[in-house]
Write a structure and sequence with these properties.
six-stranded antiparallel beta sheet; Jelly Rolls; 3 helices
Length: 188
């Protein structure tokens, strides 16, 4: 596995070794031993998968508050998406900064998103499937989101989303979350 740094410290691109022959290909999508050898110590507890039928679907920016915050390893198993991570840890020198990585079924890249980051993605094709591991269980009482077009964050997308859930379309801004004291991530 090759580990590639992004513009945000802690958010990493993971490129698995892919072995191919006349039958097709094989890769390890997760190996605790290889993660630990790379200095990545996570205990993943839950796998999630979602499907988006149409290009232009935006899901996010989602996070879970402490004590149920989640680190994630995200991969695209069908289609193509732009995966986005935003640092929402108060006091972080990267606070409100974002990075985006194109994940496709073909490039087989994965994105590691640590706790304290919001996550979202934009589908770049129809029929997109995303799978991710989380190091904590989903807890509805700790669920939160931030507007995808928050001007403080300034995410640059290749085109505007055309499909959002009502929850995501009406999400508050990062400043509104802070003003209401609805974030509890502290940079350490």
């Amino acid at each position: 596995m090759k580990v590639i740094e992004t513009s945000l410290k802690g958010v990493l691109i993971l490129e698995p070794k892919v072995f191919g022959d006349s039958r097709g290909w094989f890769m390890e999508t997760w190996s605790n031993q290889k993660f630990q050898a790379a200095g990545l110590n996570f205990e993943f507890l839950q796998d999630n998968q979602s499907y988006s039928a149409q290009k232009g679907t935006f899901r996010g920016l989602h996070y879970q508050l402490n004590p149920m915050a989640q680190a994630k390893v995200v991969r695209c198993t069908r289609g193509e998406l732009l995966d986005i991570a935003v640092d929402i840890r108060e006091g972080s020198p990267q606070f409100a900064k974002w990075t985006a990585v194109t994940l496709t079924a073909e490039n087989k890249r994965q994105l590691l998103i640590p706790r304290g980051f919001a996550h979202g993605f934009l589908t770049l094709t129809d029929d997109v499937e995303i799978q991710y591991k989380a190091d904590n269980y989903y807890a509805p009482q700790c669920d939160g989101n931030i507007r995808w077009d928050d001007p403080q964050i300034g995410i640059e997308l290749p085109f505007a989303p055309t499909i959002l859930s009502d929850k995501d379309a009406n999400a508050p801004t990062l400043a509104e979350r802070i003003e209401r004291k609805e974030l509890n991530f502290i940079f350490e």
